[in-house]
Design brief:
With about 250 residues, this protein is of the alpha/beta class. It is built from eight helices and ten strands. Strands 3-10-4-9-7-5 form a six-stranded mixed β-sheet. The longest helix has 25 residues. The radius of gyration is 18 Å and the shape is globular.
Length: about 250
């Protein structure tokens, strides 16, 4: 019993340090397109986006801005707005859990800011505290290792050094949320027809297989996954694998 309590305490200390690190990463945003702009507090400039369930039928892979503008003009008023912190919360008429979510929006509309705000609120203890571990990754980062072999556990350790001491056994008891930002920047070959199953977080495989098995629920089946994308790039993942699709 003492060793179990000690292990729980050690894990909580690691998760607390991860929150501190994530807060430091997300609390400032850079204004300016060249990366040399001044850092500004996200909470000072953040504006809640109008995030709605579903996807406009008018949106296609061409002329996204014009198509979305037309779609917004024809929206019906009964659509419910979904706050970014409630992205995994079911609406009153929905049945079953929401595990995998896609959020669509044109480039520059603020999807990454929403992801940062969600992460910051979690790190500050304000929202979604039922989540034990939030893992924020961008497809731009994942592109850098797309030719390499990783286990999911090692991938987490590499991109989030504060959780390097988390073991496979500890990860299994955590309620984990993966945020994969910017699908439109992906250079990965996400092949959902490949039926090779990866179900062990210590099993080494390609990054492509890690992500597809995570989305399919073979890896950490209780984990939540939130993916952001532009409408033109969203078809890299079949819509049937999402429990909710939203549009901003």
């Amino acid at each position: 019993m003492v060793s179990s309590l000690s292990a729980d305490s050690d894990l909580q200390e690691i998760l607390d340090q991860h929150k501190i690190s994530l807060r430091s990463r997300c609390e400032h945003v850079t204004e300016g397109t060249d990366g040399t702009g001044s850092g500004t507090l996200l909470n000072r400039i953040y504006t809640e986006l109008y995030n709605t369930e579903g996807q406009s039928e008018e949106v296609n892979t061409q002329h996204e801005v014009r198509q979305l503008e037309r779609a917004y003009k024809t929206r019906t008023l009964h659509e419910a707005a979904i706050k970014c912190w409630g992205i995994f919360k079911a609406l009153p008429d929905q049945q079953g859990p929401i595990r995998v979510v896609l959020t669509n929006g044109v480039a520059g509309i603020g999807k990454t800011f929403s992801v940062q705000k969600f992460s910051l609120d979690w790190a500050e203890g304000l929202e979604n505290q039922d989540v034990s571990l939030l893992v924020l990754l961008s497809f731009r980062e994942l592109n850098l290792i797309r030719e390499q072999q990783y286990s999911l556990l090692r991938l987490l350790h590499v991109f989030h050094p504060t959780i390097q001491k988390v073991t496979a056994e500890q990860l299994a008891v955590c309620k984990v949320l993966f945020i994969l930002d910017g699908l439109e920047e992906s250079r990965l070959s996400l092949d959902f027809n490949n039926r090779e199953v990866v179900s062990d977080v210590t099993q080494t495989s390609s990054v492509n297989l890690l992500l597809t098995n995570l989305i399919l629920g073979n890896l950490l089946p209780s984990a939540f996954v939130w993916i952001t994308s532009t409408p033109a790039a969203a078809n890299q993942i079949p819509l049937t694998f999402f429990d909710r699709v939203t549009e901003v």
